[in-house]
Amino acid sequence: MAGGGIAVQSAGGRNYEGGLTGFVITTCLVAAMGGLLFGYDLGISGGVTSMEHFLKKFFPSVYKKQHNDSDKENAYCKFDSQLLTLFTSSLYLAALIACFFASVVTRVYGRKASMSFGGFAFLIGAIINGVASNIIMLIVGRLLLGVGVGFANQSVPVFLSEMAPAKVRGALNIGFQMAITIGILIANLVNFGTVKISGGWGWRVSLALAAVPAVMMTVGSFLLPDTPNSILERGHTLKARNMLAKIRGTVNVDREFQDLYEATEAAKRVEHPWRNILQPKYRPQLVCCILIPFFQQLTGINVIMFYAPVLFKTIGFGDDASLMSAVISGGVNVVATAVSIYCVDKFGRRILFLQGGMQMLISQILVGVMIALKFGLNGTAKLSKADADVILFLICLYVAAFAWSWGPLGWLVPSEICPLEIRSAAQAINVSVNMLFTFIIAQVFLTMLCHMKFGLFFFFAGFVVIMTIFVFLFVPETKNVPIEEMGSVWKNHWFWCKYCQDY
């Protein structure tokens, strides 16, 4: 089913034939399921770590702290345990290392091979976690989940950017983030249900069900084609042209294929992509692939996504109320990501970045003020239902802002701005920086909550100010620009143009 002759126009005025086809939509939906792996884990870990039977079995010191009356004067610290945070954060350390191996697999064997391996590793990790009898098995399972996340996050955004026509590349790429948010919501619903299982083994169900998105990812990857870029990269010219014609729904792809071929030939002349990305002409891409994932994590979103039930429980919500509040914020996350899919190719990336930053800043400050006034310095005050509802509303306002700005765009923009010769290396840098700071935030959050208390929200709000200024000054608009012609964006930028004249 062809796209009815929709022309894809470059920033320089060049038109490509063809458009959005049913084949492209189907393949991108299948590929985007890789986001379910990341999302399910983001949502499941916080709920599991708030379950009493899980804590009693693996983290008895935390369990005792919660039930020790003498600790009640310091409610902010009742979950503070480096071993407990290691359960969450170890996955992201493994993902950081795995993404560099994934970069090689993605380049040499193709994007779908990387997805297949990631799905299989995640599947094994889910099984080990579901049957874990000690902390060692739990951490080993988490490390294998991390390998899966590293491979999926390295390959899926690149696959989506390369398959999609320029006019809808943003919307299709955000399918990955949509899958992440759906995974988070499903995990929150699973936790809300499994915590009620009698016998205290509901946490096993929560962890083992991670096998479901893993199977979907692994099986789905075998059904996917590879992208024309990847096929050309491995030397199959005719096959690549036929694939381009298939995904565009027309045989008139000579102009786009010629651009793609020239970009591939230029990429083949690059013997050392990791050394090449350090050249001055790639400085804007390198800076963005480092700072965008860095800032994405310093929004503080994973304070909510990892530890929503723990956070809500800490500030006075009951057990069921804390899990249900996580479900509500997860639902807001899904709806707001759908807003981004609609807006990203219509209004552009910059406006979403800037608006989202302002909304996150305001809501974070208000959450910090509310907790300071209503919950107190030591967490001894009791929240009224009205106060709890206001805090939940403000957190949902913050989650919505992230979900239509830095959430999807943190994956979209780095995946679309890099020429083919540095794309795999740049995506590995993007994922590794993301995973490094995800690991750091996951590992230190409960300690930061203990010592900084409500000031934690002001801490992250400060970074939101910095990142919004960075976008305003240094991130150009990439809406509707074909991925192989992205160099023109940097040439016309007030700051980056001095690095990019030899494109």
UniProtKB/TrEMBL annotation:
Belongs to the major facilitator superfamily. Sugar transporter (TC 2.A.1.1) family. One of its GO terms (molecular function) is symporter activity. Keywords: Membrane, Sugar transport, Symport, Transmembrane, Transmembrane helix, Transport. InterPro entries: MFS_dom, MFS_STP/MST-like_plant, MFS_sugar_transport-like, MFS_trans_sf, STP/PLT_plant, Sugar/inositol_transpt, Sugar_transporter_CS. The keyword Transcription regulation does not apply. PROSITE patterns: MFS (PS50850), SUGAR_TRANSPORT_1 (PS00216), SUGAR_TRANSPORT_2 (PS00217). Signal peptide: none annotated. Residues 27-479 form the Major facilitator superfamily (MFS) profile domain. This is Major facilitator superfamily (MFS) profile domain-containing protein. The chain crosses the membrane at residues 20-40, 83-105, 117-137, 143-160, 172-195, 201-224, 286-310, 322-344, 351-371, 391-413, 425-448, 454-475. GO terms for cellular component: membrane. It is a multi-pass membrane protein. The keyword Transmembrane helix applies. It is found in: Membrane. It holds the Pfam family Sugar_tr.
